[in-house]
């Protein structure tokens, strides 16, 4: 089983460039999340989706956009990259809301993005 | 919003030692997650527990709901246990996501 797959794994962008990170899951999960991980901080939620065609803002959404056109894919876009967006990005998915008892979250391998 | 505190931030141990990592949170929860992150790697879910204790191999997780506290124990630690261990709890609202601790970096020396 592939689980949660993120593409690409590494990327270097110049300030002002745009890119899209792809998250794909093969577990038929309804919920998908994008997090960023920065040194000395816990993972922070950027955007999330509770089902195909739906998206919502998380804790740190500025500078990012997302789309969930297909249930298995959750895309994170950076329209005009800034050095402050240098981070490791993680995608996660879950069948139900992760706060519910018995609901496990599955994570991708991460994407290390550097904006210069 | 829930707040999560982990201790210690960094931990160095000798192979074979018993290890304890602590997690405290501020708001009542339905379940707590323990995650493992290897250097340069992804994040793997170790445990999800809502009460009592769970055991998987040399790893044991306990939770005290009344005291809002959980511990992760590693018995007979091994260098391959070296990783960052992260505690996470539900956000506390309707958002349905997790709030993560900053992690405990464990290094086990041979």
Helices, strands, pairings?
The complex is a heterodimer of chains A (116) and B (110).
Chain A: E1 4-7, E2 10-13, E3 19-25, E4 31-37, E5 44-49, E6 56-57, E7 64-67, E8 73-78, E9 87-94, E10 106-107, E11 111-115
Parallel strand pairs in A: 2-11
Antiparallel strand pairs in A: 1-3, 3-8, 4-5, 4-9, 5-6, 7-8, 9-10, 9-11
Chain B: E1 4-7, E2 10-14, E3 19-25, E4 32-37, E5 43-49, E6 52-56, E7 59-64, E8 69-74, E9 83-90, E10 98-100, E11 104-109
Parallel strand pairs in B: 2-11
Antiparallel strand pairs in B: 1-3, 3-8, 4-5, 4-9, 6-7, 7-8, 9-10, 9-11
Q: How is this structure best described in words?
A:
The complex is a heterodimer of chains A (about 120) and B (about 110). Chain A has about 120 residues and is mainly beta. In chain A, about 0% of the residues lie in helices and about 45% in strands. Chain A has no helices and 11 strands. Chain A has strands spanning about 5, 10-15, 20-25, 30-35, 45-50, 55, 65, 75-80, 85-95, 105, 110-115. In chain A, the strands form 2 sheets. In chain A, strands 2, 4, 5, 6, 9, 10 and 11 form a 7-stranded mixed β-sheet that branches. With about 110 residues, chain B is an all-beta fold. Chain B is about 0% helix and about 55% strand. The model of chain B has no long low-confidence stretch (mean pLDDT about 90). Classes of the chains: A mainly beta (about 120), B mainly beta (about 110). The interface between A and B is medium-sized, with 29 and 26 residues.
């Amino acid at each position: 089983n592939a689980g949660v797959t993120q593409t690409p794994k590494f990327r270097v962008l110049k300030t002002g460039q745009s890119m899209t990170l792809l998250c794909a899951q093969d577990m038929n999960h309804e919920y998908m999340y994008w997090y960023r991980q920065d040194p000395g901080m816990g993972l922070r939620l950027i955007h999330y989706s509770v089902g195909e065609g739906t998206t919502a803002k998380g804790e740190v959404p500025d500078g990012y956009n997302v789309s969930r056109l297909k249930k298995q894919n959750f895309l994170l876009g950076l329209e005009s990259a800034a050095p402050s967006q240098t981070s490791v990005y993680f995608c996660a998915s879950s069948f139900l809301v992760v706060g519910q008892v018995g609901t496990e979250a599955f994570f991708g391998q991460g994407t290390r993005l550097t904006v210069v | 919003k829930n707040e999560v505190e982990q201790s210690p931030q960094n931990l160095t141990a000798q192979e074979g030692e018993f290890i304890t990592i602590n997690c405290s949170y501020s708001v009542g929860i339905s379940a707590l997650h323990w995650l493992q992150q290897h250097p340069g790697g992804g994040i793997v879910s170790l445990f999800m527990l809502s009460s009592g204790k769970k055991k998987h191999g040399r790893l044991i997780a306990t939770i005290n709901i009344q005291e809002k506290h959980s511990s992760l124990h590693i018995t007979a630690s091994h260098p391959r246990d070296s990783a960052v261990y992260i505690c996470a709890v539900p956000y506390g609202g309707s958002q349905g996501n997790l709030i993560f601790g900053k992690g405990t970096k464990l290094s086990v020396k041979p």
